[in-house]
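[User] I wish I could look at a protein chain and see how it folds. I have put the entry right below:
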Amino acid sequence: MAALFDNYRSGSKFDDLELVVDAEDVIIPYQTIYTGEQFALRITANPQGSPSAALGSRPSRSWATVWSRLAGNPLNTDSCRDDRFLDANLRRIGSWSTALQYLEVFTRRRQ
């Protein structure tokens, strides 16, 4: 994953890294791992005040664990049924690649 390589190359250690939620139009080369109609996600050691969740002290295979720890859900789970459905499923998916693919497919389906 280019995001990990870019952060390692800049001197960050794994336990410095966080999953960060950005506005949908914020794309940071080699750090952004997802962009959609509501938000973008990136991995960085510098969240710059954006909602984020630490990846942990060692590589974790559980996307659900990190997604559940986000300090601020980027989805409108209070009033949007589709967002509640998406959030619930993202809290169950273990694999990072599966979760990111699910986000892509779900977003395309809603359009």
